[in-house]
Amino acid sequence: MIELKRVNQKYGQTQILWDLNLNIQKGSRTCIMGRNGVGKTTLLKSIMGLLPISSGSIDINHNPMTKRSVEARPEVGVGYVPQGRDIFAQLTVEENLKIGLNCSRQKNKHIPQYIYDLFPVLKEMLHRRGGDLSGGQQQQLAIARALVLNPNILILDEPNEGIQPNIVQLIRDVLIKLNEEHDMTIVLVEQKLPFARAVGEKYVLMEKGQVVSSGDMAALSDELVDEFLAV
Ligand SMILES: Nc1ncnc2c1ncn2[C@@H]1O[C@H](COP(=O)(O)OP(=O)(O)OP(=O)(O)O)[C@@H](O)[C@H]1O
């Protein structure tokens, strides 16, 4: 589970997150939504320890994380797929995956087989450079890299941005499978409502750096969509 209490975050003098409270339940699939610029990516980066928060607290799996570094996140079971994927273009697929493994303190460092079962194309392309992969293949690699440490929480920032429809479907199926068969908590920032409804059981709506509504996806009404998502 992830619990944020009264989190404030600033870029210099500009405050982005305002007394933000958030509770992500263990085993859930949660979509964080909101218009451009409301602070969704900033929220994920704050959870990941990539941005310092000015006040408030962040607990992950009952571990206080507020003052702990980004390296502490894999230790408590969190995997992260950043916006834009951040694949190492000059390294091979296998090397990209092994970079994920390097964050581990475990002695037995190997890439779990189930990752290739989820993304067979990666096995075929193991020795190709990351930069030679299509956008959809790179996104599969980014998710796979986050999975090599067997996280129990997977956080993804707009995994479908610029991805072709058949890969979007694959990603949807993988996220549901990871949740249902591997007991993984899924948290994703998602702009597209149909995908959010297909994957998410829970929604979180943000506006101006705060959570303004949250609940079961089935309760995400047209009124809420109009008020907080329509452009
Ligand atoms: N490094 C930065 N320095 C200063 N301001 C920033 C920085 N990164 C983001 N911001 C600002 O913080 C606000 C929130 O940005 P953020 O990327 O978190 O929003 P978002 O909801 O994820 O938006 P999008 O849907 O466009 O990705 C925006 O006004 C943005 O311009």
UniProtKB/TrEMBL annotation:
Alphabetically, the GO molecular function entries are: ATP binding; ATP hydrolysis activity; branched-chain amino acid transmembrane transporter activity
Respond yes or no to whether keyword Magnesium is given for this record. no
Q: Which SMART domains match?
A: AAA (SM00382)
Q: Which SUPFAM superfamilies match?
A: P-loop containing nucleoside triphosphate hydrolases
In terms of Gene3D superfamilies, this protein maps to: P-loop containing nucleotide triphosphate hydrolases
* Domain ABC transporter, chain residue ranges per copy: 2-231
Which is a GO BP term held by this UniProt record? L-amino acid transport
Query: By its UniProt entry, which CDD domains does this protein fall under?
Result: ABC_TM1139_LivF_branched
Alphabetical keyword list: Amino-acid transport, ATP-binding, Nucleotide-binding, Transport
- Cite the InterPro entries for this sequence: AAA+_ATPase (IPR003593), ABC_transporter-like_ATP-bd (IPR003439), ABC_transptr_urea_ATP-bd_UrtE (IPR017780), BCAA_Transport_ATP-bd_LivF (IPR052156), P-loop_NTPase (IPR027417)
Entries under NCBIfam families matching the protein: urea_trans_UrtE
Entry similarity comment: Belongs to the ABC transporter superfamily.
Protein name per UniProt: Urea ABC transporter ATP-binding protein
